[in-house]
TrEMBL record:
GO terms for molecular function: adenosylcobinamide kinase activity; nucleotide binding. It comes from Halobacillus andaensis. The lineage of its organism: Bacteria, Bacillati, Bacillota, Bacilli, Bacillales. This is Adenosylcobinamide kinase. InterPro entries: CobU/CobP (IPR003203), P-loop_NTPase (IPR027417). Pfam families: CobU. It comes from the Bacteria. GO terms for biological process: cobalamin biosynthetic process.
């Protein structure tokens, strides 16, 4: 599993589609995942999933298990960095921001490679 992060509208998905070989199945927000023949799965906008799904961690774990079941499979999570800047005033927004930060820490721990994309330019940080 790899993790890609960076600011909003910085070209994270475009870079991933160019960087990784093969036909990619892209999952965004609540899209269903068809485990069909895809060997490359890119999960985009994970910060949105964390805010919208009560079971986001279980969903992410199922995808990681799917990748581990076959050496040919590649899983890539893409998340916008929302953990910097002004702390939200609303309690629910602060909780979401914290939850995203905790999940990103877990992605960083579990990932084989981590990239930060800055306006289309990659920086490998793990």
């Amino acid at each position: 599993m790899d993790f890609i992060t960076g600011g909003a509208h910085n070209g994270k998905l475009a870079w991933a589609l160019q960087h990784y070989e093969g036909e990619a199945a892209v999952i965004r927000q609540r899209n269903a995942f068809d485990k069909g023949a895809a060997s490359l799965v890119i999960v985009d906008q994970v910060e949105t999933m964390i805010g919208e799904r009560n079971d986001a961690q279980k969903f992410f774990q199922k995808l990681m298990d799917w990748e581990r079941d076959n050496d040919v499979r590649q899983l890539v999570f893409i998340g916008t960095d929302i953990t910097s800047g002004i702390v939200p005033m609303e309690a629910k927004d602060r909780k979401w921001r914290d939850d995203v930060g905790f999940q990103y820490q877990q992605f960083m721990k579990d990932a084989e490679a981590v990239y930060r994309i800055w306006f289309g330019i990659p920086q490998q940080i793990k």
